[in-house]
Amino acid sequence: MIVISGATGTIGREVVRLLAARGTPFRALTRTPPPPRTSPPHTSTGAHVRGDHTDPASLDAAFAGASTLFLLGPGTDVMPAYDRALLDAAERAGTTRVVKLSVMPVGPVTELHRPGEERTTTFPEWTVLRPGLFASNSLQWAPLIAAGEPVPNPLGDVELGVVDPRDVAEVAVAALTGDHHGRTYTLTGPELLSAPAQAAILATVLNRPVSTADVPLHALPPALAEAVAAVRTGAGSITTTDVPEVLGRPARTYATWARDRYPRP
């Protein structure tokens, strides 16, 4: 039995879908009461169950009999407490395998993930996933593109190994169900792209102009400015072969993601 946290987010939803398609038993944690039995993602092998990181009893019930945890916490200051609570529950239940979704170690968000990463590596079987920038982050541009307005670009010409969230989810499922013990994977797409380069690809895919407008650091909220400044150093400007090595196929390009997933105005 696999417990999936963060099951309603971009990666979590895809992990749920992939596990359901494989017929792999899972429990998807949610803080709200489970939806009706007729609502997705209930399947013959998986369902939503209540699990609140501030309620140990709810976690103990969710982890009963579970061998594996997919640990995907909220990207906020509560992350260390969230990770600790779920890993404590996993330990109490005798869970032996943990796959932790972290981030590429660039910027202040890294520190939120560090305690969970370190604790994850104490389990008998562990894998840490460190993806780069999600292709799906550019979905926030959709309203501006539809209105014919430029999309904001605080990163300038910095190039990042933009990764398709579907590839991240597939690697997660491979780690949850296969032998990837003791590995830390840095997950990127096959090419480095700046925000203007992504906009140019979207312009081709959508067959309409897509432009960018530079945003200075001082115009950003302080926390965001700190994160952007770290990325601007170029520390995250890498591509790796981890996705193709795990999945046995090339990583999807940003253009492929955009053709498949970007909403048409």
Automatic annotation (TrEMBL):
Species for this entry: Saccharothrix xinjiangensis
Full protein name: NAD(P)H-binding protein
Domain NAD(P)-binding: 6-177
InterPro entries noted in UniProt: Ergot_Alk_Oxidoreductase, NAD(P)-bd_dom, NAD(P)-bd_dom_sf
A Pfam short name: NAD_binding_10
Domain of life: Bacteria
Disordered: annotated span: 26-54
